[in-house]
UniProtKB/TrEMBL annotation, chains A, B:
The keyword Iron does not apply. Pfam families: HxlR. This is Transcriptional regulator, HxlR family. SUPFAM superfamilies: Winged helix' DNA-binding domain. It comes from the Bacteria. GO terms for molecular function: DNA binding. Residues 138-170 are annotated as: Disordered. It comes from Bradyrhizobium shewense.
Amino acid sequence: MKWKELEEEPCSMARTIGVIGDRWTLLILRECFLRTRRFEGFQSALGITRHLLAERLKKLVRQGILRRIPYQESPKRHEYILTQKGLDLYPIMMAIVHWGDTHMVDERGRPLLHQHRKCGKDFDPVMVCSECGEPLSAKEVHTHPGPGARSAPAAAAPTTSKTKARSRAA
Amino acid sequence: MKWKELEEEPCSMARTIGVIGDRWTLLILRECFLRTRRFEGFQSALGITRHLLAERLKKLVRQGILRRIPYQESPKRHEYILTQKGLDLYPIMMAIVHWGDTHMVDERGRPLLHQHRKCGKDFDPVMVCSECGEPLSAKEVHTHPGPGARSAPAAAAPTTSKTKARSRAA
DNA sequence: AACATACAGTTCTAAAATAGAACTGTCAAA
DNA sequence: TTTGACAGTTCTATTTTAGAACTGTATGTT
């Protein structure tokens, strides 16, 4: 599979993975949420090669996740700032951190704590149902096709090769 | 950076990314949550090469995210089932899907809907503060070092090369 | 008996992505 | 005049991934 194709699959997860689903991109986004804004900042914080960093930043800008804002003229320099679309990635980041806090910490405990300004307490992120407010777990959720589903009879995707992907959505 | 190193960084996000932060792994996990359990099931659903699939499944088993359970003798065959550690990835998956539903759908709308068995309604996942129950956003959260933080003065990491990563945690 | 099929891998080569280092170019400060 | 900060770009070497074929056990078919 070419990764461009991912973004066109009838699956919100595949599409999202096509955009942010690689290691460096996720780490770059971590830095964004930690307020890093400049090329050298990302590079020295992450140890990523300059080549890849330039690539990934371009992609994130193309995708509307970062905005490239000039902060000085001559030589022209820019900062990379999260757009609203980028800020909306926050639950993904927090969910990843929280899983790591739960399953990947050593004896020393969590590297970082998160304090909620509104209530002043250190917290964990909890994912709840938008309708009833109860915490969610996989077993309590039933998945069913929505309007954008690629229904089996329609469009009749050829599925030429035996090894091609069946259509599947999420 | 070698990806093994990621798992040892003092950052829950880096560690988690080291385990599940690549495209195929995330897609394999999607299939797991959609109840796929067998090698051929994953392969035909995703179109992943058999070689990589075998690799990734092994890694997920090593990490305790999947359990390999025999379902027949001679020839020995196994199913791959999510452990509790694997099931705990659900908020990450839902957060990814939800972002895609918000920012990556076409005119046709969402490919999949999610129904909460408890309340019976189609829902969106919402991330809230465990302490006060309010929805979270990046701007309302203050991050500070926890017990597992790699504090600057201690341990005195050499940081030999100019291009090596500064220590950074999340 | 001979053949095809299901299943779960393993093994190969070619193509693509990433690592690592060096280089470019503008400007400011020493 | 030299050095350093900054934001890249360019190059080669290494590592990963893609793609296809092959292995091996067992069942079902002709």
